[in-house]
Amino acid sequence: MEARIGNEIDAIDALEAAIARFTGLLSQASGEEEVPTCPGWNVRDLVIHLGTIHRWAAAIVLSGQMARKPRPIVRGGLAHWYSGASSALVAALKAVEPDEPVPNFGTIDETAAFWVRRQLHEVIVHTCDLAMACAGAEPEVELPAELAADGIDELLTVFFRRLVANGSPPHVRENIRITATDIGTTWVVGPGEIPELLPTGTAADATIEGTAQDLYFALWGRTPIDRLDIQGEAALALLDGPTSL
Questions:
Q1: pLDDT in tens, 187-227
Q2: At what angle do helices 78-94 and 112-135 cross, to 10 degrees?
Q3: Domain covering 145-240, topology
Q4: In this structure, what DSSP letter does residue 31 have?
Q5: Where are the domains of the chain?
Q6: What mean pLDDT do residues 53-75 have?
Q7: So what's the architecture of 8-135 in CATH?
Q8: Could you tell me whether strands 185-190 and 229-231 are parallel, antiparallel, or unpaired per DSSP bridges?
Q9: CB crowding 176-214: b at 16 or more within 10 Å, else e
Q10: SS3 for 208?
């Protein structure tokens, strides 16, 4: 079963809801809190990173061309600055049709819809980072299973390409079967210059099983892997490897 967000309107609604959660948490932060999942960063660094990515994505969507990432000057309140950047992103995504041609770093699915999905998962993962920075412990996060499954699919098919391009390829040394036990969705990822998804019936050398949400956050390195059923050294290598936004 292929995991995808139901339709583009739902995806934009989900993005706006995710931004609202991030903004709500940000209102509780000073900006100086350390972010344990992003070593060397504090909350201010995290917020500027995310807002900069929003502005970059908005520029690409509106221009229809790849753009350089901006070098922002942030004066005044951090929350106010982030609100402007995130509002600009949502406005840009609503200004174009989902199937309008728009380039991206993965050179796959080069439409505006790609950027809705990518920014949605960018915000979800960094909301987890922000929650851990504010709470000082692993936060209680609840995602709809289908949304978490879509995030797993997006990581394996899209973001792995980003990691390879950045010189930090994921550790996929053998065929690995990943199964979301709560919704029965399965992926098999295999080694290659760019690791790729294989047919779900392909034999696997290692397996990772868990709920869609636990798989999602564990693959992003945001939750302990002891929540998962892991079989094989290749599976451990994947979970220990780079998955940085």
A1: 999 999 999 999 999 999 999 999 999 999 999 999 899 99
A2: 160
A3: Nonspecific Lipid-transfer Protein; Chain A (3.30.1050)
A4: S
A5: 8-135, 145-240
A6: 96
A7: Up-down Bundle (1.20)
A8: unpaired
A9: bbbbbeeeebbbbbbbeeebebbeeeeebbbbbbbbbbb
A10: strand
